[in-house]
């Protein structure tokens, strides 16, 4: 149908008004961007710690490793939402939120990729997210295997956290649920850091140190998961 016939059909609507209406109908939906930053843990502070953290990049399942939000549509289907997007890749969102949360809980600085003074204990945190599920109106779930290793004392523990948070309808509520799941993950990892930091380096004399230099390095002390991180046990994160 020609524009003239359309104008006659709508009974005197101006051409300018009709063109504006058609343009509004054909305009692409506006994308919305979400972040896991700014969770409630930022309000909690701890005394400055006498150690550093190294929070490594987070591993994320490939099916959700994209800016578009991926939501569960039943037990065996997912939808990729073009207009609901993460501000950065989910792995970066989780790592950034974890780093901020752990720093607040432990009073420690995350020095990953940053030069830092020698002689200060460093505890490396590695997180492997095995499931990152988003079900609007139902739940936000993060299932992660994580490890904490002491660079100086070589103590290590590996645990699993299954954080499942109920959520209301809407994507804001879904993202808030994932924030709470990250907060639970950070709580359990911080307990793990405290456990590893409690292992002391053996005190040796200079003579014993000379002999020890000729021996192979001792195997890392493998520690049990703390009571606050007993969601499950799992194989070490790589």
UniProtKB/TrEMBL annotation:
Residues 1-23 form the signal peptide. Residues 34-189 form the ABC-type transport auxiliary lipoprotein component domain. Pfam families: ABC_trans_aux. The keyword Amino-acid biosynthesis does not apply. InterPro entries: ABC_trans_aux (IPR005586). Keywords: Signal. This is ABC-type transport auxiliary lipoprotein component domain-containing protein. It comes from Caballeronia mineralivorans PML1(12). The lineage of its organism: Bacteria, Pseudomonadati, Pseudomonadota, Betaproteobacteria, Burkholderiales.
